[in-house]
Amino acid sequence: MNCDDSAVAIVQEDKRILASRNFADRELQRHLGGICPASVAQQHKVQLPVLLDECLFEAGLHFCDIDAFAVTTKPGLVIALKEGIRKAIELARIYHKDLIPVHHMQAHALSAFLVSDDLSFPFLTLLISGGHSLIVLVKSSENFIILGKSLSGSAGECMDKVARELNIQYKDDFKNIHPGAALEILARSSTEIHRYPKLPDTIYAHARFDIGIDERHSIPPKPIYKLKGSTVHGDTPLKLYSKSDFKK
């Protein structure tokens, strides 16, 4: 469950997904030009019981067969998250089951284990969502080190804003598609694609992306190189650094 999708899944210990359902009112998002927290909270309240029943029916299970209930608790919009938390607490109390709080960005990182049997700790992951852009070193299921994060808005947030400025949500071709996703489709179909020049084999960071060895480290104040030309931030140059420039 997140700020726009209501989702439920029943997963076994061996990572096999027995059933999954999700719901998102793309037409309403299109009409509103994005996510409305109050509307999404109402969506969760109405749809979660329906999705739960559908998953249980597909898996041939009952609530009493479930070993534990996991629910997203952070980060996110409180008004939307509380509906899922309320439902999970209710079910855990009724059926005397364990309640597992889930940090949704950590869950994004660990979800890679659902699709790869070769993955092992530690590994590096790039997490891009509607509200976050992070480069994270995952050392264990409980140990996450943030190596870099965006200084302002996330990639998803920026895409939504651009889509709204272009009024993509009002185009019939993208009637049931999230504005940010519609923008991505338009970009893929474009014949005018501009790419960054080939970069040297070194650590690099955009001037608007905070990179460090961990949260206590920072980018040195002066870059070694500056690439000529403009970037997505206008005339702000891309900064390049070697490993020796990162200070503890």
Automatic annotation (TrEMBL):
Residues 17-188 form the Gcp-like domain. It catalyses: L-threonylcarbamoyladenylate + adenosine(37) in tRNA = N(6)-L-threonylcarbamoyladenosine(37) in tRNA + AMP + H(+). One of its GO terms (cellular component) is mitochondrion. Keywords: Acyltransferase, Metal-binding, Transferase, tRNA processing. One of its GO terms (biological process) is tRNA processing. InterPro entries: ATPase_NBD, Gcp-like_dom, KAE1/TsaD. Its EC number is 2.3.1.234. The keyword Transferase applies. Pfam families: TsaD. It is an enzyme of class 2 (transferase). One of its GO terms (molecular function) is tRNA N(6)-L-threonylcarbamoyladenine synthase activity. PANTHER family: TRNA N6-ADENOSINE THREONYLCARBAMOYLTRANSFERASE, TRNA N6-ADENOSINE THREONYLCARBAMOYLTRANSFERASE, MITOCHONDRIAL. This is N(6)-L-threonylcarbamoyladenine synthase.
